[in-house]
Amino acid sequence: MRGAAAFLQRTWKMFPADVWGWPNSHSTPRYYSGEKKAPVLTVFIGGNHEASNHLQELPYGGWVAPNIYYLGYAGVVRYRGVRIGGISGIFKSHDYRKGHFECPPYNQQTIRSAYHVRNIEVFKLKQLKRPIDVFMSHDWPRSIYHYGNKKQLLKMKSFFRQEVENNTLGSPAASELLQHLKPTYWFSAHLHVKFAAFMQHQTNSKEELPKATKFLALDKCLPHRDFLQIIDIEHDPSAGDSLEYDAEWIAILKATNSLVNVTQSSWNMPEKNGLHGKWDYSASEEAIKEVLEEMNHNLKIPCNFTLTAACYDPSKPQKHVEPVHTINPQTTEFCARFGLTDINDRIQQAKDEGSVRGEYEEEEEEEEMDSTGSAEEPSEYSTDNSGLSSINPDEIMLDEEGGDEDLSTCSVDPSPDHPPDFSASFSDIRIMPDSMAVSSDDAMDSTNEELEKSGVSKQVEEKSLSERPLKRICGSENGNTGIKKIKRRNQAIYAAEDEDKTE
Q: Residue 400, exposed/middle/buried by CB under 10 A (0-12, 13-18, 19+)?
């Protein structure tokens, strides 16, 4: 598995996305087929570089391979008393209020919108009342950079400066969840840089105890990059070593089942504004008790991984096969057990009736306009940033034409003469929680640096802006850029064989 930041606890590990189905990954099929097995329990969420058709089979979560569990579009599980939540995808305002209408075979629009966060998932997570220990999102919560060493961040990623100063970098939906859930830890990825922050939450009343969140994002899984962090989290040593459902989350899924939407029409979640008869879908203690009784107090998630596609065999070249819409037995079993709507079954029914496909074909031109955010009524959020509207030279984008050339000569990464100084804010010893600590001096330096208006800072910013086009497009020696293509960097890393295969 390559391309994901890894956060390891002593007996399990978490990936905040870009894990499953990474392009040209040699290891993923071997885990899926059972040839290899993850040595420790792995819990992950989806990002924007996944096998969307496979993850879509598990909207409520499930096993993508033995010992590797996907949290679904949004989900909460428990392991040894630790409560783990997460939301998959990245934020795009023009898709935020739509239902999950996409299904294979995808077109140029739905292949991207399939991994965009939807308001119903945020709404469900906001119904949670009990404390969350660990939460994962792929893109960063907006504004989190104000609670860490912002100066060091901008030194490493200078092209973030404008969005940081405008406070548009990251996901506003994730920021809303951060303020509501106030988890002990929040882990993210997406921006390909290691960054730690400490956010002290405001209390709503004098009786409420103050809470704080330790945030950490890691870099890409590449040599000499900070992509790994080991942490120690308090847990129940007497608890079993099985992954478990969360009773409150199951109760919320049952309560919000009537809100499931599989159309691309924009819609708003119920709120207390006089337009909805019900807006509180949180789980009462009675509802949680009913879930426990239905399950006979056995919350263990069954190890019911099922193959739904032919396993890849490199010795037998296969022709390109268009992905098909698949109903996963795990989801069928989960929905039958808790009385929930199988989203994929609902989509399939709509397809059979010709409503979803016909509706899309009629609105295809309008949808293309939506991709720019210009043909749809405004979102509840005022911007359409997913944390990468600035050009990130480390980002691997969908490349329709392929291309394996190395763009290292086109990157505008820090020069060898001015290497990033990790010691300014990060510990070389990757043991938590000390390595996540961000001093008040760092935060003050960040604030003072932002207020600086010296000629030097302006010159650096202008230089960054002038060099920006070089980050994704390599021109010829005569200055002709030719066809603008996004190509994969460090291709040799992805093409390399697994170490155990060469032993």
A: exposed
